[in-house]
Design goal:
Radius of gyration: 16 Å
Largest sheet: 5 strands, mixed
Low-confidence stretches: 1-15
Strand content: 35-45%
Family: Belongs to the thaumatin family.
Pfam families: Thaumatin
Shape: globular
Strand order of the largest sheet: 3-2-1-9-10
Number of strands: 12
Protein name: Thaumatin-like protein
Keywords: Disulfide bond, Signal
Mean pLDDT: 79
Helix content: under 10%
Length: 156
């Protein structure tokens, strides 16, 4: 499982539990943003970085301001963005590619973890499946993305 943890109000820290890799960024309140986990990433012979899911289309590990191309499991964090309150959630509005969770460390209040820990890919309907180069289901599209029908479009 990919794990994302919010530490304090001005430092966001995240780590990938399978690899133990980690990174931290400092942010100033108010701040809001999204994090997502990309899968099956590689660098080609020309040095262009790309991923099979949640691709940022920057050609680099850094997203350079680009968002994730769906399907992508999202972690959304808002620090002091709504009347000084912090909030966070896990969203599958843009589909699902990996189980993710977000939790606080430190601070005050009764904040609980938010997660989608199930492997949605295992139960993804055929018409929503994103198939990888090896033939396996690597992501599950949202109905909005798969069918592009106005009644299915979800607004963020």
């Amino acid at each position: 499982m990919k794990t994302l943890a919010l530490c304090g109000l001005t430092l966001t820290f995240f780590f990938l539990s399978a690899s133990k890799a980690s990174s931290a960024i400092d942010v100033q309140a108010p701040w809001e943003g999204q994090f997502w986990a990309r899968t099956q990433c590689s660098t080609d012979s020309m040095g262009r970085f790309s991923c099979a899911t949640a691709e940022c289309s920057s050609g680099q590990v850094s997203r350079n301001g680009n968002g994730a191309v769906p399907p992508a499991s999202l972690v959304e964090i808002n620090i002091a963005a709504s009347g000084g309150m912090d909030y966070y959630d896990v969203s599958n509005v843009d589909g699902f590619n990996l189980p993710v969770s977000v939790a606080t460390q430190g601070g005050t209040g009764e904040c609980k973890a938010s997660s989608c820990s199930a492997n949605v890919n295992a139960a993804c309907p055929t018409e929503l499946q994103m198939i990888g180069s090896d033939g396996s289901v690597i992501a599950c599209k949202s109905a909005c993305t798969a069918f592009n029908e106005p009644q299915l479009i979800l607004l963020h």
